[in-house]
Design brief:
Elements: H1 6-16, H2 19-29, H3 33-38, H4 40-56, H5 63-74, H6 77-81, H7 84-96, H8 100-112
């Protein structure tokens, strides 16, 4: 996702993937979420993934997607909040999340400074 040329291929694959496949992609990148969101190439592919997750779920994410997103964000939310690209990803994630508890976890992680 972070390669200057390969991110275009990843974006196309995400666009062609079905909903369970996009959820599997999210699960596989959650441990590298911060690096990907802060990278200029990775953030494009990540935002494409978020758009597809939202589109496949009628503009809101499934419970599992919301949980995976919260797990990915909670490990690096402060780092993302201090970066323009990362900040945009946080906003997009919070808008798509359906579970208020997961949103609250992200807010608490920012307030705790973790």
């Amino acid at each position: 996702m972070n390669h200057p040329s390969a991110n275009f291929l990843i974006q196309r694959l995400i666009f062609l993937a079905r909903w369970p496949q996009t959820e599997m992609i999210l699960e596989s990148i959650k441990r590298d979420f911060g690096f990907t969101a802060n990278n200029s190439h990775g953030t494009r592919a990540l935002q494409c993934l978020l758009d597809e997750l939202g589109r496949n779920q009628s503009k809101k994410m499934s419970e599992k997607s919301s949980q995976l997103l919260a797990q990915g964000l909670n490990t690096c939310v402060l780092e993302l909040a201090c970066n323009v690209r990362g900040n945009h990803v946080i906003k997009k994630c919070l808008n798509l999340m359906t579970n208020e508890t997961h949103k609250q976890e992200v807010y608490e992680a920012v307030l705790a400074g973790t």
